[in-house]
Design goal:
The protein has helices at about 5-20, 30-55, 80-104. The protein is mainly alpha-helical. The longest helix is centred in the last third of the chain and has 23 residues, at about 80-104.
Length: about 100
């Protein structure tokens, strides 16, 4: 069942207030199309700011990923059997020391 325009705007205002902290007393008086246009304009402005901060030209399209995301990834360290054994002994010693400290 479709909602009345005022009811839909109030519902949307409640969602925006809850999730984004927007001023909900202004939004119920706006039509959903006006709210959408305002949100799109704000997204466009924010995309331009992001592009400027990344050092690129301001565009209306989504910004390119940061250069750090294209950096080669380090290989994960694989534990050798000797490293695992040494870590096991070390951890057991720490647990024993904690247990001893609790007792006395």
């Amino acid at each position: 069942m479709p909602r009345a325009p005022e009811e839909g705007s109030a519902h949307l205002a409640g969602i925006l207030q809850k999730n984004f902290g927007l001023i909900s007393n202004i939004l119920p008086r706006m039509d959903t199309r006006e709210i959408l246009a305002a949100v799109k304009a704000e997204v466009s402005r924010l995309n331009k700011v992001v592009a400027l901060l990344e050092g690129g030209a301001a565009t209306t399209t989504s910004p390119t990923p940061a250069a750090s995301s294209t950096a080669p990834k380090k290989k994960a360290h694989k534990w050798t059997a000797a490293e695992k054994k040494a870590m096991s002994i070390k951890q057991k010693a720490l647990w024993a020391a904690k247990k001893k400290q609790k007792k006395g």
